[in-house]
Design goal:
alpha/beta; nine-stranded mixed sheet; eight-stranded parallel sheet; 16 helices; 36% helix; binds N-(iminomethyl)-L-glutamic acid; binds fe (iii) ion
Length: 426
C-alpha cells in the first residue's frame, strides 16, 4: 500500500491526460477519462490517479490526510499557460479604445505606441512594483486553474530593465504557489533609443545582454519576435545562435501576422516552440510536424485584435505537430489570463475538439515549456497539480462558454483555491 497525505475522492470525471508527451494527431484527443475518479498524493507528488477499486487496493491515507470531495465535479491536471508576458507595468486601455475605433495594432506600433508604451511604463516601475503586479496577476490565473506559467521579459529592452523584470519573476516565484518558467525576451522589439541604429541593439543583445543574462541563471529560455518590421529572419538566426551559445532553450514568436518563414526557421534551429503561427505557410506546417518544436497557438490574440484570420490548428494537428494553447497574456494583443477561456477559444475559433483543447492546455503545454516530466498530467511521480471544475462533464468545460468553471485548485498537493476563493495552504 502507498501512503497518501491528500486524497481527491469520487470525482464524477477524472481526466488523467496520462500518456507519453507530446500528443500528436489522433492521440491529442485522448484524455484518459475515468468515471468516479480518485487521485492521491504524498508530499506534493501524485501517487495514484484512477478508479476507486484501484485506489482502495493500493492507497492507504495517512492519519490526518486531507480529503477533498470530488463528487459532482470534473478533475483534470492544472493548466500550464505556456506563453505569457507577465511582468509588465501600466496598461493599454487607452490604445484599446483607439483600436475599437478602427486603428490596427500595427498602426499603433508604427506611431510609437503599442509595445513601446509598455516599455516606458515598465522601465519606470521598480522591481518591487513589478513583483506586486505579478502576484496580483498570478492570483487571478490561479483562480482560473493555472498552476504553471511561462513568463517573458521583453519590456525593458536594456540590460538593467530586462534583469529587473526577470528578478521580479524570481521574487514572485518565491512568494506564490504558481510555478513560473522564465524566458528572456530582450528581442521583443528594438527600443526607441536604438531606432535609427538597430544594428547596435542587435550587437548589444548578442555581445552583452544574452551572455550576461545567460550567466545570471534567471531565465532558461530565449524568445525573439521574428516578424517583418520587428526582427528579420537573418537577425533571428543571429540572435538564436548567440542564445544557444549562452545555453538558452529557444522559443520563437513566429508568423504572427506575416510569414517570413518563422515556423520553418524555428524547426531548423531546433527551437523548443514556435508560437502564434496565424500566418504559418504549408511548408511551415510540414516542418513543425516533422520536428520536436511545439506549435503554441494563441487564440486570444486574433480574438482580442478582432482579426478574422486564425492559426490553422486543424492542419497542424492532422499533420502531426505538437499543438499547445496559451493565453499570450500581455497588455496589447491579448489582455486575457484565463486558460478556461483559451480552452473555449480553441473549440469555438480553431476547430479543435474539447478533448484536443484540454490536452493542448495541459500535457502539450507542459511539453512546450519542457516541463512534461513534472506537470501536465496526473500520473504517479508528477506534481499533484489538479483542478476541480464545477461542470457536469468535461464537454461542458467548453459548452458553458464564457464561464470560469474552476472551483478548487490543488498545487503541489495543497489546496490553494477552495470554493472559488484563494486560500492559504492548509
Ligand atoms: O505575443 N508579438 C509580440 N508580443 C506580444 C504583444 C506584446 C504587446 O503588444 O505588448 C504578442 O502578441
Ligand atoms: Fe507573445
Amino acid at each position: 500500500m502507498t501512503s497518501a497525505d491528500l486524497v481527491v475522492a469520487g470525482c464524477r470525471e477524472l481526466l488523467t491526460c496520462a500518456g507519453p508527451l507530446p500528443r500528436r494527431g489522433r492521440d491529442l484527443g485522448e484524455v484518459g477519462l475515468v468515471q468516479n475518479g480518485w487521485a492521491a498524493s504524498s508530499k506534493g507528488v501524485v501517487v495514484y490517479a484512477g478508479d476507486e477499486e484501484g485506489f482502495r487496493r493500493s492507497v492507504a491515507p495517512a492519519p490526518g490526510a486531507v480529503t477533498v470531495d470530488g463528487s459532482g465535479l470534473v478533475a483534470l491536471p492544472g493548466f500550464v499557460d505556456a506563453h505569457t508576458h507577465l511582468p509588465f507595468a501600466g496598461d493599454r486601455a487607452q490604445e484599446f479604445g483607439l483600436r475599437v475605433k478602427g486603428w490596427t495594432y500595427q498602426q499603433l506600433a508604427e506611431r510609437g505606441m503599442g509595445i513601446l508604451t509598455t516599455v516606458k511604463a515598465t522601465r519606470a516601475a521598480s522591481r518591487d512594483e513589478l513583483v506586486a503586479l505579478c502576484l496580483k496577476r498570478l492570483d487571478r490565473m490561479l483562480l482560473h486553474g493555472t498552476t504553471t506559467v511561462e513568463a517573458k521579459s521583453g519590456y525593458g529592452l536594456n540590460l538593467e530593465d530586462e534583469l529587473k523584470q526577470l528578478e521580479a519573476l524570481r521574487d514572485a516565484a518565491t512568494l506564490h504557489p504558481v510555478d513560473i518558467v522564465p524566458t528572456f525576451m530582450g528581442a521583443h522589439e528594438v527600443p526607441p533609443e536604438h531606432r535609427d541604429r538597430r544594428e547596435d541593439y542587435i550587437a548589444l543583445l548578442v555581445d552583452v545582454m544574452i551572455p550576461e543574462i545567460g550567466r545570471s541563471g534567471l531565465a532558461g529560455f530565449f524568445d525573439v519576435f521574428s516578424e517583418p518590421g520587428v526582427f528579420s529572419a537573418e537577425e533571428t538566426r543571429r540572435l538564436v545562435g548567440a542564445a544557444k551559445a549562452a545555453g538558452f532553450g529557444i522559443k520563437v514568436h513566429a508568423d504572427e501576422f506575416v510569414s517570413q518563414g518563422g515556423a520553418e526557421l524555428a524547426a531548423e534551429v531546433g527551437a523548443v516552440s514556435a508560437e502564434h503561427l496565424i500566418a504559418v505557410t504549408e511548408e511551415g506546417v510540414a516542418r513543425l510536424a516533422a520536428s520536436d518544436t511545439a506549435a503554441v497557438l494563441l487564440p486570444g490574440v486574433p480574438f482580442f485584435l478582432m482579426m478574422t484570420k486564425r492559426a490553422p490548428a486543424r492542419k497542424l494537428i492532422d499533420a502531426g505537430a505538437a499543438v499547445a494553447l496559451a493565453t499570450d497574456f500581455n497588455p496589447g494583443s491579448s489582455h486575457i489570463f484565463s486558460m478556461p477561456f483559451v480552452l473555449q477559444l480553441g473549440v469555438f475559433t480553431l476547430g479543435m475538439t474539447v478533448e484536443e483543447s484540454i490536452n493542448a492546455c495541459t500535457g502539450n503545454a507542459a511539453y512546450a515549456v519542457r516541463r512534461q516530466g513534472q506537470v501536465g498530467s496526473l500520473e504517479p511521480g508528477k506534481k499533484m497539480d489538479l483542478v476541480l471544475c464545477d461542470v457536469p462533464d468535461h464537454v461542458s468545460l467548453a459548452y458553458e462558454a464564457g464561464r470560469n468553471p474552476v472551483r478548487t485548485v490543488i498545487k503541489n498537493g495543497q489546496v490553494v483555491v477552495d470554493d472559488g476563493r484563494r486560500v492559504a495552504p492548509r
